Structures
1.
Amino acid sequence: MPLSSGQLEELNLFQRKVYEDEPKDLLQFAANYFNRRLEQQRFFARNQESVALSKGIVLFPSATRNDSVVASGRAGVAGLQSQSQDQLFKASFSETTDPHGTRLHDPAPTATDEAGHAQEDTGFGSGIFKNDFRVNQSTEKNIKKPLDPMAPAEEASGSSPQPSNTPRRSVVAPRPLPMNFNAQRRTSVSGETMKPDNLDNWIPENYAEKSGLQLERLEKAIGHNFLFNKLDAESKRLVINSLEEKVVKNGQEIIKQGDEGDYFYVVEKGTVEFFVGSEKVNSSGPGSSFGELALMYNSPRAATVVATTDCVLWALDRLTFRRILLGSSFKKRVLYDELLKSMPVLRSLTTYDRAKLADALDTEVYQPGQIIIREGDIGENFYFIEVGEAAVSKEGEGIIAHLKKGDYFGEVALLNDLPRQATVKAIKKTRVATLGKSGFQRLLGPAVEVLKLNDPTRVAH
Ligand SMILES: Nc1ncnc2c1ncn2[C@@H]1O[C@@H]2COP(=O)(O)O[C@H]2[C@H]1O
Ligand SMILES: Nc1ncnc2c1ncn2[C@@H]1O[C@@H]2COP(=O)(O)O[C@H]2[C@H]1O
């Protein structure tokens, strides 16, 4: 039976950790790693219990209020230290016995760059998911405010905390849910595909069932948008019913560069233009979407967006965006963020450019001795080395170059419309991110000039 996309992505994440940490004791590493994943998911479940409580829903009717809510208050990375007291999060392997666990068990990264990206890839608490596991809320806060498991700590803990003696908000007429309620699935960190027989009852804030006519319009508007095509049916239903219609007049500013992100937009009708400073950088029309960057990276809006005709837009709130789209449709951005930021050849790309590039990448893994590119073949892909080493050789010349993590190859054939000019073979187990020919032509922007300048065969033709 083929693995689901969620299972594949989980394994993919694990593989990345193995490559990065190169553990000597793989089984111990795997045991600790998956225990931690489990703890994180339990933690999310507890967070969602708080969300549900705030809406008057009891997720775990058999647990006492104190048990369940207190558990949510001390779980997460910070709370893992206290896991021995908390049976819900109990791990069968001790963190302290992990010989390789320093990074794996580090708290979520604290260093962030100017765009708000985490500097260290710990696999889970890093990159776009920065701060997600650094939640240390008090019981009151958990009850008071719905928590976004993907929100930064400041936000998740509430911007204007209530004094600790403030009475808890009363929970009106709790609606019991089945015990098999799987609250953590919506968190999307593992990218699980939700199975129709296992749907939970999380209801987005702005959820409103759409009419048949609206659904028809939306199907047309977002039917071809790849972000939505990646969603399973249930996630798509939640997203569609959370979209709010916004009618915008010609000339109206929809987003202002530098502002905080609140909504993600899909264009049903009309056209919009994007400005960075006073420079027009882009335009788009029906079926396209915008406004995701600030929501993904918790950064200020990267551009001003102005309607250039009367427009009909559909807006998705930040929380639903992060809960559903970030972990699935934007998963590649999470996976490739660190790699792309670290590549000198891509230094000229903006956050927006890198995000678009990440969307187009795929991962391939080669064993030592395996040929990645064969001299004389037609070039289809461009490659970035994520992990490993490869050798470049030419017929009659032998090895002419060595490539390592952060290097790229396969550009010569694509730049010059030539057959492959050399053979590239993995020396160690090598993981590469691949970019297809059309992506290469569309998405590298100013980096193409750098590639041309560095073309190793440039003198020859
Ligand atoms: N060249 C561009 N640079 C930055 N943002 C862009 C660009 N083209 C389109 N956009 C969109 O403009 C949006 C402005 O808000 P965000 O930064 O949230 O997300 C941004 C992108 O979705
Ligand atoms: N001296 C070289 N000559 C040709 N290709 C090289 C050389 N050094 C590195 N390479 C890489 O090997 C790749 C083989 O496929 P391409 O010709 O598409 O792109 C080539 C370059 O990325």
2.
Amino acid sequence: MTKPKVLLLGEIAIAKDTWNSLSDIAELIEPKASNRAEFIEECKSGELDGVVAGYRTFGSFAVTGMFDQELLEVLPKSMKFLAHNGAGYDQIDVHACAERDPPLLVSNVPTAVDDSTADTAVFLIIGALRNFNTSMLALREGKWRGNPPPPLGHDPQGKVLGILGMGGIGRNLKAKMDVFGMTTIYHNRKPLSEEMSGGAKYVSFDELLETSDVISLNLPLNKNTRHIISTKELQKMKKGVVIVNTARGAVLDEDALVKALDSGHVLSVGLDVYEEEPKVHPGLVRNPNVLLVPHMGTWSVETQDKMEKFCIGNVRSAIEKGKLNSPVPEHASLQ
Ligand SMILES: NC(=O)C1=CN([C@@H]2O[C@H](COP(=O)(O)OP(=O)(O)OC[C@H]3O[C@@H](n4cnc5c(N)ncnc54)[C@H](O)[C@@H]3O)[C@@H](O)[C@H]2O)C=CC1
Ligand SMILES: O=CC(=O)O
């Protein structure tokens, strides 16, 4: 009997054995295309016909671009499942996927990302509060702490951490920052139970902006959250606020942020994500009060291994049971 095809978009970095074990139930194929135009042609040529499920990585964007209406129109009709290896699925138009006939059901990888992304946020919070970047740059230029040395930094103890988006990563971060003596408040679309929030206080969006010493962005990027932090929101923040973003660059308006940094209203920033990755706003690069990390949130052996196995689990379930283990919330009722 012919096996269903599974399309790999991107690379399996670690869990190669788990991936190869899928060949018991599927024919594993990869596209020849190296850019979007070629990928669209390959789809149209019929070479990918018979593909039932796809596994995609964040980096495969370089080949396919957005999973949008244009792509949905050329993908083989046999393709019913797309397992995304990542928590954030903003590269996929999940609404268009739901409306396609037949729907393309999408899963993501929540939970496996929580520790390492929250760890990255911890690093950025402490680094930005203490403003370590300035002296780290001076040291590499042979100037020790710099001349003059940087202003004194700030300790986290006793400060208020405001988490915008209290999901898996936000809750994990809250627990970690308890150890640093921070008090956490949060804003979400809905308040969480006391147990889920770990005792963090639910506040309105404005109260979070107005009362936090440090603001951590941990919400998904979608049409409702694009530039959720822009000029008006930055003005509501305390003078000297520290902002950390490990969510997606575009939840924060980078032009507005650069202006708020230049005026001194925002003291320092720690960023893992950017509006137009891999480009970084020149106003951020030139500012020593900005601690920059190139989207390294889940860049660890252990987490990549967990994420890949989780995502492969979605592919296996799609083929064996016709269902994804962790459909994105928008698709949960479709299967
Ligand atoms: N830097 C990195 O490498 C990584 C970045 N991420 C990003 O972090 C985001 C969050 O990840 P998780 O915590 O796993 O997601 P999650 O789905 O567990 O949590 C997101 C939370 O944000 C809340 N939310 C949604 N819209 C909101 C709004 N308008 N205002 C306030 N809260 C809102 C949701 O209710 C939910 O509680 C992902 O969507 C992804 O973009 C995730 C993993 C790694
Ligand atoms: O950015 C990484 C993700 O898992 O989302």
3.
Amino acid sequence: MATMESLIGLVNRIQRACTVLGDHGGDHGALPTLWEALPSVVVVGGQSSGKSSVLESIVGRDFLPRGSGIVTRRPLVLQLQKTESGLQEYAEFLHLPKKRFTDFSMVRNEIQDETDRLTGKSKQISPVPIHLSIYSPNVVNLTLIDLPGLTKVAVEGQPESIVRDIEIMVRSYVEKPNCIILAITPANQDIATSDSIKLAREVDPSGERTFGVLTKLDLMDKGTNAIDVLEGRSYRLQHPWVGIVNRSQADINKNVDMIFARRKEREFFATSPDYGHLAGKMGSEYLAKLLSKHLESVIRARIPDITSLINKTIDELEAELNHLGRPVAADAGAQLYTILELCRAFDRIFKEHLEGGRPGGARIYGIFDNQLPAALRKLPFDRHLSLQNVKKVVSEADGYQPHLIAPEQGYRRLIDGALNYFRGPAEASVDAVHYILKDLVRKSIGETQELKRFPTLQVEIRAAAGEALERFREDGKKTTLRLVDMESSYLTVDFFRRLPQEAEKGGNQAANAADRYTEGHYRRIGSNVSSYVGMVSETLRNTIPKAVVHCQVREAKRSLLDHFYTQVGKKEANQLAQLLDEDPAQMERRQQCTRRLELYKSARDEIDSVSWSR
Ligand SMILES: Nc1nc2c(ncn2[C@@H]2O[C@H](COP(=O)(O)OP(=O)(O)OP(=O)(O)O)[C@@H](O)[C@H]2O)c(=O)[nH]1
């Protein structure tokens, strides 16, 4: 099994990677966070509760900034690593990886400077942690996170909002189920009013992950003691309370050495009539060991969950990155290539719609099979070939002398008039197919996943395809109308040659001559013209679809974006870049996901390396 050092060290390394790669937790769903999944010990306490003193005594060194007002304004991740006895103590910051601090007053200055570097003169707080590692033979392996102290009032020079901001930041840590809360309370204050205990009770009601620390035991009024608290009767926690005696202000002023202070603390408990029986479980050294052991066991228990969380998140991030697509290339050649690839992807989907791989093509057939025949049937030939109109047109064509045999001119005029009606359905078919094609372009753009990232290119493709379809429509109209005109230019002679013979079959010549100007005569003309027009209608029902497919559908399949390709080929580098100007939010998201993925992968490598070194 991995050793204690390697487990706490492992989490330290992952925490450092989190900070380097921008995972400070608290993202609230925007990005997965590993930071919050890692077990950590967080120090919480009210103002002047003795928080800094406890941390310094655990380390055995003076190194935290002091001063009035809210001094701690960024989380301090304090990573303690035990080294072999005799080796020199030193400190290192994550943000200054090459620099070893052996003078701990310089550490204090650096914490201050680094705090200001992010929060500036404004004295605001920031959630970006400072990582400090201390290597010393006098520490146990332990990581503690020091947060700004809970406070009720901002002092001069600090914004009013800071009180609330601190509470929000502290809460964001202690709320997480992986957080071990080190709740500091001064013994000379009523436990019921302790800020840290109030907060801990709220977020950890069962007290499973709260360690109560009672400071300032030496400052209690004579004749009182804290036995009821320390033995868990005043406020019950799952873990035993630990009492502490830190250096007093006077000791600090006198520069009392921390190692000496630790010895004094041991003596205090050993010789105390009140706490003597608890002496083995009191003091800052004991607290450090207790926490180290607990943190190690929590990490050990959590590793399998963390590993599966890491693997799951890597899958999710990779899936999202795939969905977002690769970043756009920087040089013009690659950009042109990308644009053409994207156009082809669109074109493929568009063709699939026409060829039956996707719905849409059948709607065009619907026009030819239903709408066109229905429109042809509805043409007002009954009115045009009514007895009255036939008589009128024939008589007008005859002029001053009525026709002798067949009313040649009358026939022609009636037929011309009728054929004119075919222009409507011919144009309507072209338009209907045009709109279907246009709609399929819109649909295909929406269905081209690769294009999703590029709103500008989408607009351009749509415009280019729209223009092309417009040209095909023009051509479709010209061609179908020409079919109609051709019918008028030259009539099918055979049809009329057959007519007199059929008429003669019905009776003798004399009878025919007799009813030349009767209603029957005009009715027969009407019916002859009607069957001729019916024959033409049958022809156009077949040839209009051929023209429409030839001019519009086939062209759309063959050359929808040809014109666009030529234009794109002539574009300058910056114009190409403009076509590929991705949605900035999407670019940002890709960057974030890439960094987060890097974090999770490095965490996975760290965990793997520990498992190997068993
Ligand atoms: N006598 C005695 N004094 C203590 C003890 N713990 C802390 N003090 C003193 O209490 C004062 C505040 O201690 P700090 O450790 O600075 O407390 P803090 O919670 O970090 O304070 P802020 O960060 O300023 O809110 C200092 O003067 C310490 O010397 C203790 O156990 N005994």
4.
Amino acid sequence: MSDTLDLACDLIRRRSVTPDDAGCQRLIQERLEALGFKPEWMRFNDVTNLWARRGDNGPLLAFAGHTDVVPTGPEARWSSPPFEPTIRDGLLYGRGAADMKGSIAAFITALERFVDRHPDHDGSIALLITSDEEGPSVDGTVRVVEVLEQRCEKIDWCLVGEPSSEARVGDIIKNGRRGSLNGRLTVRGRQGHVAYPHKAANPIHLLGPALVELGARHWDDGNEAFPPTTFQISNINGGTGATNVIPGEVDLLFNLRFSTEWTAEQLQAEIVAILDRHQLDYAIDWTVSARPFVTAEGALVEATAGAIKEATGNAPTLSTAGGTSDGRFIAPTGAQVVELGPVNASIHQIDEHVSVSDLDTLSVIYEGVLRRLIAPPSTS
Ligand SMILES: N[C@@H](CCC[C@H](NC(=O)CCC(=O)O)C(=O)O)C(=O)O
Ligand SMILES: [Zn+2]
Ligand SMILES: [Zn+2]
């Protein structure tokens, strides 16, 4: 068994359903301390965060990730128990195998080889690990970044181990992400009897045409760095449960993933204008859970692409598609941020898995990134 696989299995055995870390970070801390990293616990409410650094000088290369995992869903539907790592046909099964305990294991083994070969590396290396990525993301990476900013500790390059790959490991580097805007809308009508609609105002009927317009709207074509902005309704609730009552209100949750063609504020104004045009009586609450960020080609993208080419023979494509990530908290500090991890086909699913050989490839890629960015010139 490879070291990376071994460690990935040890991490999967820990039932770290968000925000519980279940001892994963203690394991990581022990391995890092043996390499000369200085660990620092940053606990906020029920979230465990680990910041561990080796070296006092810049530039600082940080690996970032999370030990929390999403709930398993019905365990009986798994082919093997989700917290018992199991290998079948070259694949490692278990909750978190791909998202993202496999990447964390690959970080550690890459660091072990790198520090052994380059004990006097340039600059510094750090790990930023949280147990609040899959949850509300309020006491995790964002809080660690606040602490680092307060003490002027600056990350120059950050590699997030989210499962970025699509068809084969290393085919995609995520070099940014779209923004995410949530709206919570309540449309008010007047409750009444379904047989006497003229004495009521049905908020579901009133909302309908506005929803059609919002759903059909073409927001933008995206741009060179971003896919188009999308609008999706995630929840709609209205009604008393009775078949003969027109409800007084309807509640809607919607989300926009937006490119840099819009700001969150412009989108809010646009949606308010649509709702007003439909003359709705409504209240709306907004949450901007991510602003778009992008890392232009530069030292980190080049080092990551070079390490992938060396390890796999293939050149990666840059993408900002999909969801958002904790990179949204790190990029605004001025750090270059990329995401590179295993194939994401089974993340959050029943029977989540990762290719065993991909774990070793990832570890080699991460070591290649370290070598390109902070190995002393004579040895890189
Ligand atoms: N619940 C949190 C964080 C939500 C982050 C989530 N990210 C992904 O699902 C990653 C998927 C991918 O790699 O494309 C999301 O985008 O919703 C919050 O809302 O703050
Ligand atoms: Zn993840
Ligand atoms: Zn996830």
